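TA notes, week 10

Several of you asked for a full example with nothing omitted. So below is the full record: structure tokens for the whole chain, then the designed sequence directly under it. When grading your own attempts, check the secondary structure regions first.
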């Protein structure tokens, strides 16, 4: 049996050991982020979502990844500074991980195994193809800013394509549904 999500070893962006266990009983939105991507402005919406829903039990968790065209080349310190100064990010950031391929982090193995298909993935696949980029085959993460929603019970509840923004009604409805459930 695979390791429970809450027990997978992680590191905060400042290098401190962490697990998702510190967020038990909360609803988590796990997002692979990048500083030099066309979707980078999503940081603004994610921060707004975090600010509006944190009091109800939502945690947005950012996982920088440099897997797509080298769009997250910076060090952890550079990433943190960028997020703070450019988007006033206050949600937790973790150390850079790989979300695809042979070096894929165990957290992303668990997330993609749990839900192989992302809601709203068609338009992003078409957009990537338009740029001459072949999207990763399912269940792999397609691109930066793919979102995984984890319920209070620690199970992956939903997955959303990279271009599904933080204010998308489908994402908001899924978050509200998970927040409404008891811890």
């Amino acid at each position: 049996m695979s390791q429970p999500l809450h027990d997978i070893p992680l590191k905060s962006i400042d290098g401190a050991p962490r697990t998702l266990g510190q967020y038990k009983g909360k609803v988590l939105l796990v997002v692979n982020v990048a500083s030099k991507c066309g979707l980078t402005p999503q940081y603004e919406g994610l921060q707004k979502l975090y600010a509006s829903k944190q009091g109800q039990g939502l945690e947005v968790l950012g996982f920088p990844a440099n897997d797509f065209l080298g769009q997250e080349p910076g060090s952890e310190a550079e990433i943190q500074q960028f997020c703070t100064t450019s988007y006033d990010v206050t949600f937790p950031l973790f150390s850079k991980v790989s979300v695809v391929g042979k070096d894929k982090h165990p957290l992303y193995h668990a997330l993609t195994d749990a839900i192989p298909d992302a809601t709203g993935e068609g338009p992003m696949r078409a957009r990537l193809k338009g740029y001459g980029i072949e999207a990763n085959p399912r269940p792999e993460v397609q691109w930066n800013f793919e979102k995984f929603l984890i319920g209070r019970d620690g199970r992956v509840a939903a997955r959303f394509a990279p271009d599904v923004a933080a204010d998308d009604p489908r994402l908001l409805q899924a978050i509200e549904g998970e927040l409404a459930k008891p811890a």
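The mean pLDDT is 95. Use that as a sanity check on your answer.
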